[in-house]
Each structure stands twice: as C-alpha cells, then as structure tokens.
Fold:
Amino acid sequence: MTQAVTTPVTETVKPVRGRIKCVVWDLDNTVWDGVLLEDGEVRVRPGVVEHIRRLDAMGVLHSVASKNDPDAALAALERLGLADLFLYPRISWNPKSTAIQEIAAKLNLGLDAFAFVDDQEFERAEVAHALPQVTLVDAECIDTALVRPEFRPRFVTDESGRRRAMYQSQLARDDLQAEFVGTSEDFLAGLDMTFEIARAQREDLQRAEELTVRTNQLNSTGRTYSYDELDALRSSPDHLLLVASLTDRFGSYGKIGLALVERATPNWRLNMLLMSCRVLSRGVGSVLLGHVMGLAKAAGAGLEADFVETGRNRMMQITYAFSGFREVARDGAHTTLAADLDALQPPPAYVRLRVEP
Structure:
C-alpha cells in the first residue's frame, strides 16, 4: 500500500476572485476516508455531506473530478447515497484540470465560478497551474473554507434549492439533443414546452432582482433593480411588471423572463425586457416581447422600448429587430425603439403560451 505523503495544511492555494457556483470534489480521502481501489469499502468523511447539502440548498452546484476506476467510483457513490448530488462527474485517470474544464463546459459556467477540493497538494497545484481562475481548497480545511462569503450566493431565492434539479433536467435535454436526428423545430416540438406569463407577485421579486443582476446577453438595458424598487413598480398603477416561466417534459426552467412596462402615456414604454440565457437555444426569446406588443395593441396604444448597448446584449437587439422594432432616437449608447404593432407575430408553433390574469 502506498505511504501517504503528509503536506502542510493550507486553506486555499490562492485567493478567490468571485462567488462560487460549483464545487468540484475529489473522492479518495476527500469525500470519503480511504482509497477505494485499495481499501474496497470506504466511509464518507464527517461533515462532507452536511456541507454539500447546505450549499446545495443555496443553489451551489457540486461535481466530481477523481482519478479512479469510473465504474467502481460511481457504484460507491450510489451505495453511499451520494450519486444524485453530483452533476456530470468526471472520473478517469486524466488530469483533474481536464475534468474541471469538461464540467465547466457542460454546465456552461465560467472557470472563475468553480472551487476544487482535494486532499493532495500535487493535484491542487496541477489545477492551479492549468486553471488559475479556479479556487482551491484543501480537503482538511472545508469547515473553514466552505463557509467563507464567496461560497454564499448573492441571492438565495425560492428557486435556489431546485437549481440542481434544473441542471439535471438540462443535462437530460442535452443528451436527447445530441442523439436527435431531425430539424431544430422538430426537436423543440418534442420538448412539449409551455411558456407562462403572469403579473409579478411579491414572492417573485427575489428571483426578479436576481435576473436583473445575472442576465447579460438577453437584457435590453443592463440596468439592475432592487427588491424594493421592483415591489414599488409592481404596485404602481402606471406600470406593469410581468414574469415569465418555462416548463417542458423534463421539468421546469424556473422563472426565466421579466418585462417592465410603463403605461402612463398614450405610448406605452418598455423600460426593461430580459430573458435568462439558459433558454437562449429554446427559440422562445421573443414570446414575452410579443405578448407585451399584443397588450399595447389591444389597449389602443403605441409601444416604444429602451435599449442600452452594454457590449454583451446584441442578441436582445436582434430580438427587437426581428419583432418589428425600429430605431427612432439615439443618445449615446441609449436607443429608443418603436414597435410596428401591425407586424405582431404569434408564438412559435412548438410552444404553448399560457397567460395568467
């Protein structure tokens, strides 16, 4: 049996740069005590599962990067009742940095949103060299490292505890799409999608605030709104605050869209429109916008929209253009767009629209 090498205990190899969205775990002598292929039976290390479940409830994801026999390691995770906690585990004899890169690509998260927990100084150093963006944690220091502020999301919403399940559903969709033979429209039709639009309620506002902060590519202005600002706008008779949700046969995407409409003048004004980037490939980016256009037309009003170029929201600019908006005024990066309400388009045939009164 190989003699274990004792190394100095350090909480992290380098300072963190941002909030952690996914923690990647080694297995041997990290998640469990012992080396699986040498000891056969292993036991979960005290405190590990408690940390994983605590972070999971706040919306922090977890995965595995382990040098191990894949079948034996996955069977051990199943036997210990842990398999469902980890998304897209990478178990092989390849470098841990390669595994983390694969996980990041699959989850569509930046490397600076990852932390890596390992008991071996060599493995942490390999990841530090290849992926300097990743936060490194010594397995002996999880009780202090994993409670640091960067491991607590800025927002803990009603959707946070369901984030892992939503990612698991997305991985299932990705697997189906990879095997699908046919057109994109055929694939989307097979998802059985329902797009729901409703007036924002108070219980929606934490997630609404989170959307204004986290959404970049499909955000018309880049402006953020606080909970209190959104609550005031929700209650204002001159404004309409709408939230959109999406479900399909794999489950819910959660609340993925927000629209803020000012109705104080004969021409309504769309102060903000945003859609979560996680539905970018689902062909539903214009559904909420089309609904607002329909409401304005039914009220006998025109519709203008604010658009502010942020350098990252060109997709929203394209969405407006395809929906029949044209530029009528510009002041620096701020553009005023006007809608052609005679060019109103119905939702795509592959999605059902449900509107709550």
